[in-house]
Design goal:
The protein is an alpha+beta fold. The chain has 21 helices and 16 strands. The strands form three sheets. Strands 3-2-1-6-5-4 form a six-stranded antiparallel sheet. Strands 8-7-11-10-9 form a five-stranded antiparallel sheet. The N and C termini lie far apart (about 175 Å).
Length: about 650
């Protein structure tokens, strides 16, 4: 057996170096074997061998460190790729990218900017480790600063100390933000999808740092994974948005289709109701039930045509005008208003109460109601026009006097009138209306409406708008009709009246008297007023066919005559003497054989009875005529009365 020899010092040193490599000892430990060999007295050749072995061992260790670091980096990249692939929310993806970049490179701060293709710059999107609000809101123009240059050129850039680095285009905004954050060393790499740069990923330290090529490669690899994840998340988000919009569009289309179906069915139902003879109230009742509210229908003049389940309201003029111009229903003070139109013509309006918030479906239904109401009002107007024609023809027959070639068939006229709801057995007055020629059609329509309300007849006769209506006081009716028609037309309307006639045969003469009254009103300058001939004083007395002398005298002198009768005074005699002697007080007192003061006192009493203007020229003429007629009636025998 060979003797065991002690290992030489170089062998011991080599074995120790191998142990250090296996243990992954720190770099400084690798100098120990060489030092021990020198202390043990190793020769120069042996010492050189140990030092060469030490150098090789350090190279092996550095290679192993690089492999381990690369393995760790690859593991981190794979983990990052897996994490990014599992994320679906874009904000979560961006936060994960920045956080992992800061961890892998061991920097103080990491952040990410995204390009804005609309504005043409890149803006701060996510930060990790940042403390400056100004830095977190930075926007960089293309080519500005380190990040703007990366975004513009699609190449990575690094700066060991950005503040002092003159390679980049510094701006006050960028330098202020970077300075407030305290950054010195900055590395930026592009986020690319194919050939398109979508942003920049950064790692930065608050101290000077020279980023090695490995750090650039590592951050670039992370950026490549991140860009794919960002694009995927963006596409997924766009897909989700598109699906939501598609679902919303589908639901909208379904709701619209259902609304159209309901509106069409309702429209058909309402149209059928109209064609079966339903009136405005029937339609209003049906629609009020469908819309669960109250409904009011007005005509073009604002008159109420129908009302269901609500208090009376007037048509809001502003709402009607807005609906008419826009063609849609509009809300006004909690009430929905829709104009009823036939083309551009306003036929009326409908108002819906109790429904301040109206859905699109109900709004369309409400608007359909206006179309049906327009149809109903047009039908109603056509019927009214036809009826007005018939009424006008009957009116002309009644007002036309008999002639050699024309005989009056009073029985036929009575039957025709009865069918129209007119009772000719009642006394009827005749009113003749006049306005500007351009407004005559509107006056005729307004008069026809009034005739229907009075159970009378209206129409055109001999170029005049004429109303035949049962009335005991034609003057009062003429006065009110002139005021109402003038207000409706917005222009003066003059009305002459006569009657009433006790039987149809007397109507032509009454009509002729009404025409004379109208002419007298114009001649006297009373345009825009209404009256009968008796209301015109002695003019009416002169123009009337059957002048009521006693009635005229009583209207003019009645208070004085009654005073004499009650007190036995002689006011009438005094007034007659006063006018007979040219309104002379002295001559009147001589004729009456009384003192002049007595004449003055009697005339003052007359003033109190007749009014302050009793002695004006017009009143004086009336009084003198009435005094003469009074003298005649006192001395003349009674005359048989005549009736029209």
């Amino acid at each position: 057996m060979a003797p065991v020899t002690e290992p030489t010092e170089p062998v011991t040193a080599l074995r120790r170096l191998l142990d250090l490599l296996a243990q992954g000892a720190p770099v400084e430990d690798f100098a120990g074997p060489g030092a021990r060999a020198r202390r043990a007295g190793a020769g120069d050749e042996e010492q050189a061998l140990v030092e060469e072995a030490t150098r090789v061992a350090l190279d092996i260790r550095r290679t192993l460190d690089q492999h381990r670091r690369r393995e760790a980096e690859l593991t981190a990249l794979f983990d990052t790729a897996g994490d990014l692939a599992a994320l679906r929310d874009l904000d979560a993806v961006l936060r994960a990218i920045v956080r992992r970049a800061r961890t892998l490179l061991g920097t103080d701060v990491a952040y990410l900017t995204l390009n804005d293709p609309v504005v043409g710059d890149t803006f701060m999107r996510v930060t990790d480790g940042s403390v400056s609000a100004a830095f977190q809101q930075l926007r960089l123009g293309m080519g500005e600063g380190l990040g703007g240059l990366v975004a513009q050129t699609a190449r990575p850039y690094a700066s060991a100390d950005y503040r002092a680095d003159g390679r980049f285009r510094h701006t006050s905004t960028i330098d202020s933000g970077v300075g407030e954050e305290g950054l010195r060393g900055i590395l930026g790499v592009p986020l690319r999808v194919a050939s398109r740069v979508i942003g920049v990923l950064y790692a930065a330290d608050r101290s000077v740092r020279d980023f090695a090529p490995d750090a650039v490669a590592l951050l670039s690899s992370l950026a490549d994974h991140a860009a794919v994840a960002i694009d995927g998340a963006r596409l997924l988000e766009e897909t989700r948005t598109a699906l939501v919009e598609l679902n919303a569009a589908t639901e909208t289309a379904r709701a619209h289709s259902e609304a159209v179906r309901l509106a069409t069915e309702t429209h058909d139902r309402l149209t059928d109701l109209v064609l079966r003879g339903g009136d405005v109230t029937d339609v209003a009742r049906e629609v009020a039930a469908l819309l669960r509210g109250g409904l009011v229908v007005h005509d073009a003049d604002g008159a109420e045509l129908a009302r269901v389940a609500t208090e009376p309201i007037g048509p809001p003029a502003q709402g009607v005008a807005a609906s008419r111009s826009g063609g849609r229903a509009v809300p006004v003070g909690g009430v929905w208003v829709c104009a009823v139109l036939a083309g551009p013509e306003l036929l009326g309006s409908i108002a819906l109460t109790g429904r301040p918030d109206l859905s699109d479906t109900d709004r369309r239904l409400f608007e359909r109601t206006s179309l049906v109401t327009a149809l109903l009002l047009l039908l109603r107007r056509s019927v009214a026009h036809a009826e007005d024609r018939v009424r006008g023809e009957l009116l002309s027959d009644l007002l036309t006097p008999e002639s050699p070639g024309r005989t009056r068939d009073s029985g036929s006229q009575t039957i025709r009138a009865r069918k129209l709801g007119v009772d000719l057995a009642r006394p009827h007055a005749v009113l003749v209306l006049h306005c500007d020629a351009a407004l005559r059609p509107r006056l005729a329509a307004e008069t026809a409406r009034r005739a229907r309300a009075l159970d009378g007849l209206a129409g055109l006769h001999e170029g005049h708008v004429v109303l035949l209506a049962p009335a005991g006081s034609p003057g009062d009716l003429a006065q009110s009709l002139a005021a109402e028609a003038g207000k409706a037309l917005g222009a003066p309307v003059t009305v002459g009246s006569a009657g009433p006639a006790g039987r149809p045969a007397g109507l032509p003469a009454v009509y002729a008297e009404a025409v004379r009254c109208l002419d007298a009103l114009h001649a006297l300058g009373h345009t825009g007023y209404g009256a009968a001939l008796p209301d015109l004083g002695f003019v009416g007395l002169l123009l009337g066919d059957h002048g009521d002398v006693g009635g005229y005298v009583h209207r003019v002198l009645g208070p004085v005559i009654d005073y004499d009768a009650q007190r036995g005074t002689e006011l009438v005699r005094t007034l007659r003497a006063y006018y007979t002697h040219g309104a002379s007080l002295s001559k009147a007192k001589d004729a009456l054989h009384i003192h002049v003061n007595t004449v003055v006192q009697r005339l003052d009493r007359i003033r109190q009875l007749l009014g302050e203007d009793w002695n004006s020229p017009g009143r004086a003429l009336e009084l003198q005529l009435a005094l003469r007629l009074h003298l005649l009636t006192e001395s003349a025998p009674p005359r048989p009365a005549t009736t029209a």
